[in-house]
Amino acid sequence: MQLQTKQLWIVSALALLMAVTRYNHFGSSISLPDASLAVFLLAGFFTARLTWPALLTFILLILEAGVVDYYAINVVGVSDWCVTPAYWFLIPTYASMWLGGRWFASRQQYNFNSLAVFGGVSWLSISVAFLISNASFYLLSGRYSDMKLAEYADRVAQYYPAYLAGSLTYLGLAVVIYIFLRNPSKTTAEVARP
């Protein structure tokens, strides 16, 4: 299978994952947490060797996020609480994830040290994404005009761990799948050993 065909399948699977999980940021007893951050990082990684198709993929994923949000709010009845002027800052939020994936792709070595680098890049990208989306919401939504720094810190402490955990869980699963699919016979033989 050609490299671009594999990438098309991967990006399609990522788009599907975002479509089915985007309805609930942190998940619930009946839904998975939003995978959008992980999707953008992984899409950046898997399309890093492409030029204009990579940018087109980023744009299409941004449009998909908007369409899913529109559908969730206007058809499913999900709250529109987060749709404020700050909503536009989701573009740089997702761009930070995308660029983290692209940066890592150019440095990956297919060894244990790369896993540590991937973990660091993932954490940093998610943290930057959180800062952009969270700070822009509190500054531009018009709902928190008199928020004190201590109250903001309390809200960060409340939301950041779940924001980080959901994305890191998806990225960890992606690493396991990637390792298995990259060399299934070796992985199966290693698992079969006592």
General description of the model:
- The chain has 194 residues and is an all-alpha fold.
- The chain has one domain.
- Helices cover 74% and strands 0% of the residues.
- Helix 1 packs parallel to helix 3, helix 2 packs across helix 6 and helix 4 packs antiparallel against helix 5.
- It starts with a helix and ends with a helix.
- The C terminus is likely disordered.
Would you spell out the secondary-structure blueprint of this structure?
Layout: H1 3-21, H2 36-46, H3 52-76, H4 90-105, H5 112-140, H6 149-182, H7 184-192
In short:
The chain is mainly alpha-helical and 194 residues long. It has helices spanning 3-21, 36-46, 52-76, 90-105, 112-140, 149-182, 184-192. The chain contains 7 helices and no strands.
Low-confidence regions? 187-194
Order of helices and strands: HHHHHHH
Look at the structure and give the mean pLDDT.
86
Helix content: over 70%
**Total helical elements:** 7
Largest sheet properties: none
General shape: globular
* Main structural class: mainly alpha
Strand content: under 5%
Give the C-alpha Rg.
18 Å
Termini Cα gap:
34 Å
Q: Total number of β-strand segments? A: 0
Count of discrete domains: 1
Main attributes?
194 residues; mainly alpha; 7 helices; 0% strand; globular; disordered C terminus
